Amino acid sequence: MGMGTALNFDELKARGQKLRERLGTETQIQEEIVTSIFRRAEAIASRVTSQSETRSKDWSKVVDDLLTSRIVGFPLMLLFLASILWLTISGANYPSNALAALFSAVEDRLTLLLLHWEVPAWFHGLAVLGTFRCLAWVISVMLPPMAIFFPMFTLLEDLGYLPRVAFNLDSIFQRSGAHGKQALTMAMGFGCNAVGVMAARIIDSPRERLIAILTNNFIPCNGRFPLLISLAALFLRVGQMKYGTALASLSVAGMVLLGVCMTFIVSFILSRTLLKGVSSFFALELPPYRRPQVLQVLIRSVLDRILFVLWRAVKVAAPAGALVWVLANVNVNGMSIIDHLAGCLDPVGRLMGLDGFILLAFILGLPANEIVIPALLMSYLGTGALVEIESLTAMRELLLARGWNWLTALNVMVFSVLHFPCGTTLLTIRHETGGWKWAFLAVLLTTGTACLTCFVIAQSVRYLQMLL
Amino acid sequence: MRQYCWPSETRGISADYVAALAGNPNTGKSTVFNALTGLNQHTGNWPGKTVLQAQGYYRHRGKTALVVDLPGTYSLSARSPEEEVARDFICFGQPDVIVVMTDATCLERNLNLVLQILEITSKVVVCLNLMDEAERKGMKLDVDRLADELGVPVVPTAAHTGRGIPQLKESIHSVALGEVLPQPKPVAYSRQLEEAVRELEKGLQAVYTNGLSRRWVALRLLEGDYSVISAIRRYTAAEGKQGD
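^ inputs. structure came back:
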């Protein structure tokens, strides 16, 4: 039957072509079909709808004019972002500390239990100091900011604010030689860069789609936000500073701004070198504002995003913790493997205002960005004195003890925003572009940008300090 | 019980009938989907496509309905992956009923998709969503008249308050199980085009079109959209393999 079907269809195709000769070209027929359907829709709609009275003032238009205005549109966007971050930072601190204390208590019990069973020391190290601790950090550092930030972001999305953001950013994207819809894929990147890369399918032109894919990683995702938030909180808030929370939120907002600016700059460069061309036009629909369904959003963001992302982090964190512990505790030539590795990376790291351990942590964080901070703490701890991290303050002490200052924190944040995409995103890029070529280019482009930016920041700060 | 299995997955859900949710973006499709299925959902892929789609189920009058949330599209011209997924599912996913979501506040634009879907199948329920918003804007909609003009059941809803959802379930139930047989009125084209369509339809009589409306296939052939033919071949071949 299959054969018969195929034959008949070819015959029909020919017959259709012959019939078409009498009617006109394919485009003319397509047009006739579309127009007829449009007319029918118009006729039906006008017969069934009637407007009772015109409303004096359409408030949604007033709001739209304000949100998308040339003057206040951008400041309002920043204000929304900063307030969300402020709420996240001030809200996440308490549950973070509570979780850390809880895990620390559990860790003590586990240690006692293992001592009681007289297990070998290496097993205790691997299971408790490696695996359990890394897991505990991922959960206590990552979960609270995630649980606060994402429902709020979803609420803004539900309200219908995101298309207005796209509208505001459209002209800048056009001038960067990219597609206006990239604003939307960029916004998706806040959730997850892999999703943002996949969302680039909404862009029809292959050239502009590639730009959107290659630059998506400059937007800090779900997995990187907690790093930014906790570092900002650690270095700006903990020291009883006045307006600490506000400063911390502004610095994270600044990091987002840096990512967005980098997106424009790199898009601009790409569209004039590797991916030459002009931007195409598109129509953007501004949907009506709707009251968000708060309960629905809460349930779905807990179920879909938080649990999913947390599970992903946990899956990676446990083995990563074990791996870091092994690296830190197996000695070769009188030095642990991690010291060897970090030692190799150290000169490069120093140039960029970082150190070898930080670079190593970013490399270990390739499977999932969530584990960068835990891996870093583990490797710092594994080689130094064994400190228990019961609170964020203790974490700060540890980092200061390893020679961190505000410049280190700043550069770690910058590097985190700009560095190479995570494993999942790279796989998605390969899948979406049909080869490793573009995924490789994405790594090169982002890491190059990250190294260059950190280098410039570190060197200029050092130069200024010498001057003063 | 009908075992409905996504070819790309091992997991299947036993359902008495399958309802597909189609519609323009921003018509509250996901809200209706959530209102219908509650938390009984998971996401899956239609074979060969990486556009994610959610599916869920609910029980109504002792029957289990599987609901598939298709990507939001403005048309079925298969120019984007989303449109292709929506079109392929409507054509080859063998849904028992298609619920077309429309935004009551801009009915005209939404009706385009409704009319396109009605050319493919008659098993359609039109969900006129966001009725409360339309009322707030001072619009009056004659629901009976709309049902009459289209020839299919029309259910007014305000999904985020739950208004109209029981009636929607009832309508889905009766169309899916064949208790109600919608009689859509086809869009009339020019005399010459209609003649050509009739001519081609005759030729299609002998061909296996996988249950697709012959009029619709003829129209696609005439406008030179051969992706439909390759899709028919692809899905026919896939079914042949499954049968072995």
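The mean pLDDT of chain B is 82. The longest strand of chain B covers residues 52-60.
thumbs up if we can close this ticket
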